[in-house]
Input
Amino acid sequence: MTRTAPPAPRLGLAANIGQFSLLVAVNALVGALLGQERLLTAFGESTFGSSPYTLALLFIAVFGLSKAGANFAAGHLSDRWGRKPVLILGWVFALPVPAMLILAPDWGWVIAANLLLGINQGLSWSATVVMKIDLAGPSRRGLAMGLNEAAGYIAVAVSSMATGWVASQYGWQPEAFLLGAAYIALALGLSVFAVRDTTAHAELESASHATAETLSTRQVFARTSLTDPTLSSVSQAGLVNNLNDGLVWGLLPVYFTANGLTLTQAGLIASVYPFVWGLGQLATGPWSDRAGRRRLIVAGMLAQAVALAAFATAGGFTVWFAAALLLGAGTAMVYPTILAAIGDVAHPSWRARAVGVYRLWRDAGFAVGALTAGLLADRFGIPTAIGAIAVLTAFSGLVVALRMRETHSPAR
Output
């Protein structure tokens, strides 16, 4: 019996709608597993007792560092092995996580589980980003990244709410973490048996370029981090974006309840931020295809700064709910647009590695943000920590405004 050869690769969302939709679903499962992560401070406090802010946020720092390293590895391995093996490897690393959380006797187990979860998130999410950029081609990258990131972060919000409900009704161990086991089993099965590799699509696009570019991984790292004004400016913006997300993730729920909000109110504010972030990317991704990338990134960083300043200087459910809406909208402007801009600038032959380097810096922001916020909050209080990071976020937006060049003409 002869095996049918795979169809010749074609670029564009319409030509690849089946595989693209499948990858959107897989990335939603990546986000759903991350959604459980968003409630681990509540799990740890209720199960193991409260800790100083710095210690309590250590698990976020470990997650951020392991995810950052896995992002970098994912870019390199995607060019060396292909995209699909990296995606599968990411889900293999996730397999022990639910059991570790179910059996966890102390914070040390949570931190160890987060290390593995960070590797899963870095490998699997990076692989889906690179594969969608490969499939979409140059004209609709903003839409492709908007759909990718929207699927992931809407799933974060929905899974966070689902995990909180299960934990409140049935308990954390084992019931709440069985959801994560189901996510992993489904995603691993889809990745092994249904997803197809997209390396040939990148090679097809590379062949259409007038010049070939062969760069070492060290050269890609230097260009993305320092020497290319556009790539380096969006890399620092990504780091600062996740720096403030690390603060929001770790400190705001505690800040809300300490200032008189009920758990229900705090949970609503905490969930509306990633929900607006996720849903908003359905609009901001294609918007960047029409209006260009640079202005959306600058506006998004400044919107985040204003929202954080409102958290630090104002009080009450109504104001904080509005600030969470603005923070989600600002993040939605930034997240898919930066990825699309990297796809615009990086040559297909080293694009996966450029995405990996950017995501290394971006997710290192989790660790920097968690530790910085924890140290500032322990020393000066939570409002000061939030205010300091609001100023840093505004400065990051100004760096993009001054250094980044526009990468996508609306006429293209």
Q: What stands out?
A: The mean pLDDT is 87.
